[in-house]
Design brief:
- The protein has helices spanning 16-24, 71-82, 99-109, 125-133, 154-161, 189-197, 231-236, 244-258, 274-285, 306-317, 340-351, 357-370, 409-423; strands spanning 5-9, 29-30, 43-48, 51-57, 86-92, 115-120, 143-145, 177-182, 207-208, 215-221, 224-228, 261-267, 289-295, 325-328, 384-391, 396-401, 431-436.
- The protein is globular, with a radius of gyration of 25 Å.
- Helix 12 (357-370) packs across helix 13.
- The longest helix has 15 residues, at 244-258.
- The chain has a seven-stranded mixed sheet with strand order 2-3-4-1-5-6-7, sandwiched between helices. It has a seven-stranded mixed sheet with strand order 9-10-11-8-12-13-14, with helices on both faces.
- By secondary structure, the protein is of the alpha/beta class.
- Bound molecules: guanosine-5'-diphosphate (GDP) (2 copies).
- One guanosine-5'-diphosphate binds at residues 183, 185-191, 234, 295-296, 298-299, 330-332.
Length: 438
């Protein structure tokens, strides 16, 4: 079977061959003589998750003085595109959009093949988003910040890329929802997992992770597939001679990184501990959505008000996570555990949500009207020009302002609060990037 082809396109020096080398790792360059494949280019075999594909570097697209493609090169690129399942258009994030990029972009938009825009040389995560945001102007959809040299962002990018490869080749489904169950030892993580699996309601299938030696557990509810990430490691724990601390922190951190949604399990008897706070901090640093799951609710003596005061206590301790939904369960009796799934769905949806620039700016205008930005001691006032959402998972909004230093924490929290009040984002952290004029 011929493997699907990914064509890499862009001006010279943007980092195409660096990216191709990264994708193909040390796999041999191959020259195919299968029908339908052009012979005069070098194809490299690559894979991501369970997809195998060929990558072809089309060579730099060069322009003459009239910013027209040189005809021969255009022809080559055309041929490469005609056989590709998806094109990766690589641009230079440090340089910003150039005339050449616009030319290639215009031309690509007329082609039938789906195009993914890779903004290369974006080594810094925060700055990278801003660098990438400039390329929305090319009109080719979301620009993905990556670094071909260091690998930042390439995983996420490849997850998007494989969505465009033929499905016969597809075993890993990126539409699955990755759910990680994390918490201190003994809070009831394994019990919760077992309760999810229950009898017959769940499909249990061990799937070896492609990049790491982990086993995930798949459960299905209402036709949706949830991948319980890395929980096998947690289950295995008891037979292994590592310290509990090693698992509670390292494994949990890894599981958080892989999650769409984290279930932060808290022991109702102990309440929120320092370790729980550490995990919550990490969830926010990683920009994951989360649900606070208070387990062992059966073991708490309670009256009609307990749940409210308990909830208040938890949220006081985890005030920086006030966006997260909270649920009280018993893994032992099964109480309310099925109610976790709808909360997961909401968190995922909000985590992936995209908001129109016009709505963002309406919220900003309204917020500023109620409370104008602060004035520094030197009498300089902050000004917000406009905002735009530059990415999701988690929703990230860049605010273009005159000078970020003029906005204190209070005002920043106020603006974030306004976004939450007006737009929601229940269950997910959001990021606001305050960007000054150069
Ligand atoms: P190509 O002509 O598009 O194939 O570009 P190359 O892969 O040969 O890279 C061109 C230049 O950009 C080289 O000097 C690379 O070292 C540099 N480069 C490539 N990728 C990155 C990256 O991710 N970050 C940075 N900072 N430089 C890069
Ligand atoms: P893990 O270390 O987080 O995986 O925790 P386990 O699932 O192994 O549970 C630790 C202990 O808490 C076990 O003795 C469980 O029986 C108990 N446990 C777990 N969930 C519940 C619950 O909902 N209620 C009560 N009362 N005990 C529970």
């Amino acid at each position: 079977m011929t493997l699907p082809i990914v064509a890499v396109i862009g001006r010279p020096n943007v980092g195409k061959s660096t990216l191709v080398n990264r994708l193909a790792k040390n796999r041999q360059a191959i020259v195919h003589d299968e029908p339908g494949i052009t012979r005069d280019r070098v194809y490299r075999q690559a894979f991501w998750r369970t997809h195998d594909f060929l990558v072809v570097d089309t060579g730099g697209l060069v322009f003459n003085d009239n910013t027209e493609f040189l005809p021969l090169i255009r022809e080559q690129a055309m041929t490469a595109l005609s056989e590709a399942s998806v094109a990766v258009f690589v641009v230079d994030g440090q340089l910003g959009p150039t005339t050449g990029d616009y030319e290639i972009g215009n031309w690509l938009r007329q082609q039938k093949v789906p195009v993914l825009l890779a903004v290369n040389k974006c080594e810094s995560p925060e700055h990278g988003l801003i660098q990438a945001a400039q390329f929305w102007e090319l009109g080719l959809g979301e620009p993905y910040p990556i670094s071909g040299i260091h690998g930042n962002g390439t995983g996420e990018f490849l997850d998007k890329l494989i969505l465009h490869l033929p499905s016969s080749n597809k075993m890993f489904d990126p539409e699955e929802i990755n759910v990680s169950i994390v918490g201190r030892p003994n809070v009831g993580k394994s019990s919760l997992l077992n309760a999810f699996l229950g009898e017959k309601r769940a499909i249990v299938s061990p799937i070896a992770g492609t990049t790491r030696d982990v086993i995930d557990t798949i459960v299905e509810r209402k036709g949706k597939v949830y991948r319980l990430v890395d929980t096998a490691g947690i289950r295995r724990k008891k037979n292994v001679e590592y310290g509990a601390e090693f698992f509670s922190i390292n494994r949990a951190f890894k599981a958080i990184r892989r999650a769409d949604v984290v279930l932060l399990v808290i022991d109702a008897i102990d309440g929120v501990t320092e370790q729980d706070i550490k995990l919550a901090d990490r969830i926010i640093d990683e920009g994951r959505s989360a649900i606070i799951v208070v387990n062992k609710w059966d073991a708490v003596e309670k009256d009609a008000y307990t749940i409210y005061s308990y909830k208040k206590n938890v949220m006081n301790r985890l005030y920086f996570m006030e966006w997260a939904n909270l649920i009280f369960i018993s893994a032992k009796s099964g109480q309310r555990i099925e109610k976790i799934f709808p909360l997961v769905d909401i968190a995922v949806k909000e985590h992936r949500r995209r908001i129109n620039t016009s709505i963002i700016n309406e919220v900003l205008e309204e917020a500023i009207r109620w409370h104008s930005p602060p004035t520094t001691r030197q009498g300089k006032q902050g000004k917000i020009y406009y905002g735009t959402q530059v990415s999701n998972q988690p929703p990230t909004i860049v605010l273009f302002v005159n000078d970020p230093k003029r906005f204190n924490d209070n005002y920043r929290r106020y603006i974030e609060g306004q976004f939450r009040q007006q737009i929601g984002f229940s269950g997910t952290p959001i990021r606001l990037l305050w960007k000054g004029k150069k």
